[in-house]
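Morning!

This is the sequence you dropped in the shared folder:
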Amino acid sequence: MNKAKKLKFILAFFILFTVCGFGQEKRDRIKVLKTTFITTALDLSEKESQKFWTYYNAYDEKQYDIRRNVIGPINDKMRGKGIDAMKTGDALMYVIELQKAEEDLFNLRKKLIQDLKPVIGPKKILKLFKAEDDFNFLLLNKYKEGKKD
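The structure's back. Tokens below.
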């Protein structure tokens, strides 16, 4: 994507982020923005798009569930003086749970790559990883800006 096109897209992204329906949940708005961002970055054909989003959405939901239902509750227990107040046995149990969750996330990513290779090929898979990183960077910066206001 050339610089002018990228700049226009980023500007449209921030406008969409700001104007996007106020009644919707944040996660839904972010998902729409992420879909738009990835679609633009990968320049998917209609045929690629149909299969790609089937695989990617399944992956995204599973990884979200792991982060929310396994990693999230453990992180909640570690806030504040949580770690210092833990018994060693409990800490070990949480380490094992976190290790398992990270392994599950890794395996999900591996499966996504295997599923996508015949659909979009290795170059677009690399573009996907870059687009995810770029999107997360933009989202984090937007979040930080909101915290300042």
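Headline: The chain has a mean pLDDT of 84.

More detail when I'm at my desk.
O.
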